[in-house]
Amino acid sequence: ELASLMDVAVTEVISACMSLGIMVTMNQRLEADTIQLVADDFGYDVQFSNVEEDLEIEDETVDSPEDLVGRAPIVTVMGHVDHGKTSLLDYIRKANVIAGESGGITQHIGAYNVKLESGQQITFLDTPGHEAFTAMRARGAQVTDIAIIVIAADDQIMPQTREAISHAQAAEVPIIFAINKIDKPTANPEKVKEQLANMNLLVEEWGGSIQSQDISAKQGLNVEELLEKVLLEAEILELKANPNRLATGTVVEASLDKGRGYVSTILVQTGTLRVGDYLVAGSNHGKVRAMLDERGKPVKEAGPSTPVTILGLDGAPTAGDKFRVFEDERDAKQVATKREQLQREQTIRTQKHITLDEIGRRIALGDFKELNIILKGDVDGSVEALTDSLQKLSTDEIHINILHKGVGQITESDVLLASASDAIVIGFNVRPGASAKEIAEREEIEIRNYSIIYDAINDVKEAMEGMLSPEL
Ligand code: GDP
Q1: Residue 18: which pLDDT band, with cuts at 50, 70 and 90?
Q2: What is the Cα Rg of the chain in Å?
Q3: What's the burial of 267, exposed, middle or buried (CB within 10 Å: 0-12/13-18/19+)?
Q4: For residue 79, which atom of ligand 1 is closest to its CA?
Q5: Nearest to 83 by CA among 151, 24, 18, 31
Q6: For residues 36 and 342, what is the distance between their CA atoms, to the nearest angstrom?
Q7: What gap in Å lies between CA 266 and CA 310, rounded to an integer?
Q8: Is 80 exceeded by the pLDDT of residue 357?
Q9: pLDDT of 419-428, one tens digit each?
Q10: Which of 443, 458, 472, 470 is nearest to 363 (CA)?
Q11: What is the C-alpha to C-alpha distance for residues 95 and 230, in angstroms, rounded to an integer?
C-alpha cells in the first residue's frame, strides 16, 4: 500500500525498512513511526487519515473543562494470597447500602458499584489480584484509579505483597494499605507498618503520605473508615469525566451464556452508554439490546465509572479490550472488521516490546528515554548488587528504572508487568517457568538470563551506549 502510494517498487520500501534495521515482509503492517521515516526517505510527508484514527478505539475528542463532572473512583484490591482480598470485596458487596436495597449484591459480574451513606460512590473491580490488573494494563487499559493492598496483620509482607506494590507503582496508581485480620489475637499491625517503612513506604502514622487502615474484613471492622480513605484519595485525584458524549470504556469480563448469547461486563469511563447504542469492543461489535446492573436489574443508561452487563455483542471480547460507541451501525461494523484484520496481522508483526538489541533503533526514532527492567535472582544479595549497579548506569539521557525486583523464578506476573510497562526481564541464576515462558513468547517480552553479574551490567551498558543521542 505504502509503495503504491509513493509510486515506488515494494522491494524499495522493504529495503528502506531494512536500512532502518526493520525486517519486514510485503504484507506486513508497519508502525506509524516507520511509515513516517520511510516516506521521508522518498521525499514524502505523511498525514494519517481519519479512517486510521477511527481504528483507534479511543475517542480523542477533547472535553472542555465545563463539560467535566466528578466521577466515582475505580478501585482494585490486591495483595498476597489468603491475606483477605476476597473477604474484603465480599464484605463491601454485602454491606452495600443503597436506600431501600440493603440486601447487597449477590452476583459476580466482574465489577460493582457501592453507594455510601454520604451518597458518594465507589466502583470496585471484582477480580482481585495484580495479575488481572496488569493483564488489563498489558492490553492498554488503565482502568484503576486507586489500589487497595491488603496485608494480613498476623503475617508479614510476602512476595505477592511486594509484587502488588510494584505493579501499582509501575502503573502510577496510588496505594492505600488495608492491614487486615486485626481481630486475630496474633495480629501485629505495627510490625507490618514497620516493614513497609523499611521498604521506604511510609504510612501516615509513620510520618509518610501513604494512607493505611487497620481492618477486619471478616468482621467488617473499620471497613467504612477504609472506604472514607478511598474517597479522600479520590478527592485529591480530582477524577472527572464528561457524561454528555458517546460512551467509551473497558471490557471487564465476557462470556457466552446459553440463554442470553454473549454477555459482557463493561466499565463506562466517559460518556453515557444507552440501550440501543452501537458499539465496538475489541474486534466485536453489536447493538446494545439490554443492560443490567450488578444486581441484575435492567437499566437504560450508564454514565462514567458505572459497570454494566450488556447483551447484544456478536462475540466475547477480552478483558482489557476498550469499547467505543459509534454514531451508526455501519461505522461500528466497519471498524470492528478492520480491527479483526489488524489483530490477525499483529501476529506476524515485528517486535512489540523493547529488547536490548532494539534500543539503538528506538533511540534513533527519538522516543526512548527510559529503560524499564524487571529483575529476578536466586539470592537477595545478588539482586541488590545488580539493582545497584544497573541503577548507577543511568545517565541524563536514559534513566534505568527497576520496576520490580525479587528473589525467585521469573513468573507470569513478572512477564505481564513487563508487557504492561514495556520492560525487559533479567534473570540472575533463575529461569522462567513454563507458563511465564509461553506468555513471554506470545507478548514478545525479552528475558535475558545471566549467571555473572558483570555480563548483565555490561550488556545493558553496551546497549545504552548504542542508544546515547549522537553528539553534535
Ligand atoms: P484472598 O486469598 O486474599 O482473597 O483471601 P480470602 O479473603 O480468601 O481470605 C483467606 C482466609 O482468611 C479465609 O479463611 C478468610 O476467612 C480469612 N480472613 C480474611 N479476612 C479475615 C479477617 O479479617 N479476620 C480473620 N480472622 N480471618 C480473615
Answers
A1: confident
A2: 24
A3: buried
A4: 3
A5: 151
A6: 19
A7: 7
A8: no
A9: 888 899 999 9
A10: 470
A11: 16
On whether the CB atoms of residues 75 and 123 are closer than 8 A, the answer is yes
The single-letter code of the amino acid at 73 is P
Alpha carbon 55 to chain centroid, angstroms = 20
Query: What is the tens place of the pLDDT at every residue in 126-161?
Result: 988 888 888 888 877 889 999 999 999 999 999 999
Q: What mean pLDDT is predicted for residues 383-398?
A: 90
| Closest atom of ligand 1 to CA, residue 87 | 7
- The dihedral formed by the CA atoms of 310, 312, 316 and 317, expressed in degrees to the nearest 10: -70
Q: Is a pLDDT exceeding 60 seen at residue 327? A: yes
What ipTM was reported for this prediction? 0.99
Give the E-state strand segments of 383-466 in sequence order: 399-407, 423-428, 447-450
CA–CA gap between residue 352 and residue 421 (Å, rounded): 12
Distance CA 389, CA 394 (A): 9
Can you name the residues that pair with 322 across neighbouring β-strands? 250
Residue having the nearest C-alpha atom to atom 6 of ligand 1: 84
Q: Which pLDDT score, from 0 to 100, does residue 71 have? A: 97
Q: Which three cell numbers stand for residue 418?
A: 513487563
Residues 6+ apart with CB under 8 A from 412: 131, 433, 435, 436, 439
State in Å: Cα 366 to ligand 1 middle: 49
What are the cell numbers at 233? Answer: 484519595
**How do residues 162-198 score in pLDDT, each as one tens digit?**
999 999 999 999 999 999 999 999 999 999 999 999 9
Of all protein residues, the one whose alpha carbon is nearest to atom 10 of ligand 1 is 82
* Nearest ligand 1 atom, CA 221: 23
- The binding-site residues of ligand 1, defined as CB within 6 angstroms of any ligand atom, are 79, 81-87, 128, 180-181, 183-184, 216-218
pTM above 0.80, yes or no: no
pLDDT of 208-221, one tens digit each? 999 999 999 999 99
How close is the Cα of 156 to the center of ligand 1, in Å? 14
SS3 287: strand
Q: Do 249 and 270 contact (CB within 8 A), yes or no?
A: yes
Rounded alpha-carbon distances, angstroms, from residue 468 to 326, 421, 424, 425: 44, 21, 18, 21
pLDDT over 60 at 293, yes or no? yes
Mean pLDDT of the chain: 87
